[in-house]
Amino acid sequence: MNVIIVAKFLRAPQKFSFDQPRTIALFAAGLLGILSLGAGVGYAASLVAGDNGVQAQTLREEIEQQRDELDAARGDAQRELNAMAIKLAELQAQATRLNALGERLTQIARLDDGEFNFADTPAVGGPQTDALAAVPTGTELHSSIDELGMRLSMQSEQLLLLESLLSDRDLDAALLPTGLPVRSGYASSGYGTRADPFSGYSAFHRGVDFNGPRGSDVLSVADGVIYFAGKRSGYGNVVEIDHGNGYRTLYAHNQQNLVKEGERVKAGDVIAKMGSTGRATGNHVHFEVWLNGKVVNPSQYLRNARG
C-alpha cells in the first residue's frame, strides 16, 4: 500500500510505501510520538485546571468567611445601637421628669417667671481651642452615658427631697394662722386687759374683736379641720378650727355657722356670717388664737399677709 503526502512545506509530494517493514516501523514510531505528545499536553492541562479549581475553592471559602464576619460585625453594631437607643430613651425620660420637677419647684418656690425656663435649652459656650479632642470609642461613650444616667438619678432624688421640703414649708405656712378673719372692717377691741363692756370692771380680753355689717363673711385664717361648730355660753355661735402643730383659732358671736365638725377648710374659706349672738353689744366677730392649749395674742398673726 502506497501513501502520498502533499503539503505546502514540502517541495514535492512524498510517497510512502507500506510494503517495506522499515516504512511501517517509522510510521508507527511517529504515530506513537504524536499520541504521547497529545497525552502529555492533556495531562498538563488537567494539572493546570486542577490547580485553578483548588484556588477558586479556596477563594470562595475566604469570601464566605469574610461575609460571615461582616454579618457578625453588622449584628454586633446593631445590638450596640439598640442598647444605646434604650439608654438614650431612659435618659430622655429622666430629663423629662427633671423638667417637670423643676417647673413644680419653680411654682412652689415662687420664682420669677423666666428665671428658670425648662422648655429652652441652656446656653453654653467657651473659647475655641486648636487642640481637637479624640473621637470617643464605643466603650467610652457607654461609660459617659452611664455616668450621665447616674447623675440624673441623683439630681432627681435631690429635687424630690427639695420638693418635699418646700411642700412641707408651704404646708406649714398654710396651716399657720395668718391675716384677718374678715374681708373688711376694723379692730374694735384688742387683746389684753380692758374694761368689760357690760360691767365696766377691768377684765382680760382673750382675743381681738372685728366690727362689721351683720351677715358679712367670717373667714378661716388658715387651712384646718373644724374642731367645734355650735353654741357656747357667752360666745353665742362659735366655730373652732384645728390647724395642727398645736394651733387652733376661734370665731365667736356669729349670726350663722356655715360649717360642720370634721369638715376640712382652707385659708380664706367662708365659715360663718357675722352677728351678735352671745354676750355682745353689736355685730362683730371675736377672734382668738390658741397654741398648745394656751391662748396667745393674735396680733402677731394678724399682721402677716398671706402671699
UniProtKB/TrEMBL annotation:
Organism domain of life: Bacteria
SUPFAM superfamilies, per database record: Duplicated hybrid motif
Coiled-coil region: 56-101
Domain M23ase beta-sheet core: 204-298
GO MF term (any one): metalloendopeptidase activity
Pfam name, any one: Peptidase_M23
UniProt keyword Hydrolase present: yes
InterPro entries given in the database record: Cell_wall_metabolism_enzyme (IPR050570), Dup_hybrid_motif (IPR011055), M23ase_b-sheet_dom (IPR016047)
Ligase as UniProt keyword: no
Swiss-Prot/TrEMBL keywords: Coiled coil, Hydrolase
Matches recorded under Gene3D superfamilies: Glucose Permease (Domain IIA)
PANTHER family linked to this entry: PEPTIDASE-RELATED (PTHR21666), STAGE II SPORULATION PROTEIN Q (PTHR21666:SF291)
Name the record gives this protein: Murein DD-endopeptidase MepM/ murein hydrolase activator NlpD
